[in-house]
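NADPH-dependent FMN reductase-like domain-containing protein
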Amino acid sequence: MPRRFLFVLGSSRSNGNTELLARAAAEQLPGDVEQQWISLAGHRLPDFGDQRHDTDHGRPADDELALLLDATVAATDVVIASPLYWYSVSSHTKRYLDHWSDWLRVPGLDFKKTMAGRNLWGVTVLAADEPSVADPLAGTLNNTAAYLGMRFGGVLLGNGSAPGDVRKDTEALTRAKTFFAREPELARFPHQAV
Ligand SMILES: Cc1cc2nc3c(=O)[nH]c(=O)nc-3n(C[C@H](O)[C@H](O)[C@H](O)COP(=O)(O)O)c2cc1C
């Protein structure tokens, strides 16, 4: 299957640091790798309503959700590019991930089996100088990948507060150059780690 990257942008502003860092990493992808970029702020997803245990499941009726679902299952690589908000993913990003719980039950889709073996990556920018405060975000993405049997490529982390600040984080921009070159490993929950 040819590589196809879906970049899911979770910032609440356009042209933010997280997108900038994600684009710096994406620049290094080979030309034959397809890229799709979706800004969640521009695709207002409905709030998640928990209908997992209702009987009638189907494809989402909402156009924006259907677009996100189709883009997600078409991707070999899903890149969650979310700024660090309160030490975790942004609300736009969390809402997108919550809808995955519905997609797990869409008849005929087999979302879990479809996503198994595919790659999940994270890109984030935070204002704090201490990268470890982003551990909850990294844990969310790692565990999400583990739950779905996906591979996890880790999180590309940058520093910045105002838009464009991450350009000054030369170490992050250097890491971006090789970030997608790594081979993601099958994700494991912390309690499964060897
Ligand atoms: C709602 C909100 C919550 C934030 N929470 C954190 C945080 O927990 N830790 C941190 O270091 N920075 C935090 N920040 C700062 C952003 O992570 C930082 O400004 C980042 O550059 C924003 O990325 P963006 O330009 O891609 O939107 C927060 C910003 C906002 C708006």
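thats it. Residues 123 and 156 are 5 Å apart (CA to CA). Strands lie at 4-9, 34-39, 77-81, 119-126, 151-159, 185-186. bye
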